[in-house]
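retry 2 of 3: previous attempt timed out while embedding zinc ion. Reduced batch size to 1 and resubmitted. Inputs unchanged:
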Amino acid sequence: MSDDKSKESLRIKFNQYLEENKLRKTPERYFILDVVSETSKKFDAEYILNEVLSRGTRISRATVYNTLSALIDAQILREHEIEGKKYFEKVPLSQVYIRLICTKCGKIKDVKDSETISAVNSKKYGKFLTSYSTIAVYGLCSSCVNAKRKATLKAKLIAKENNLENKKKILNNKKK
Ligand SMILES: [Zn+2]
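retry 2 succeeded.
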């Protein structure tokens, strides 16, 4: 995904989040989101504060912290703790998607399901420390389901016709 495209998807995602949670769409929040979008490594809140300052914008520390926690809530960021220090990292876009794979034609469709993904990510598997997960679901795509339905209907129809033919034959034989 290109930078502009992922920036745009993050904006759409954040927009949805703000709307769903009835939060104000302030320019400060979007400014911070853009800084986050352009960052490819893990970072801390201080980094964002400095970055905001260096771009000549004045955003309060509280707004930066609030926006970062909103971004975590919106599953745009996730928080890590390394040696007692907190870091943020962007959630790869693909990781709020579940992959649907058709076992017949091989078609792949990614559907958004952050709820399931976050449920898996927050689950504890012994002492294993989960960073992220990807989920694939196997089955039949809608076109293959339709094709299967049609094939079944056709088979039933043929069976019915054969049955009628047989009955006719039997009747004709009886007449003879
Ligand atoms: Zn298919």
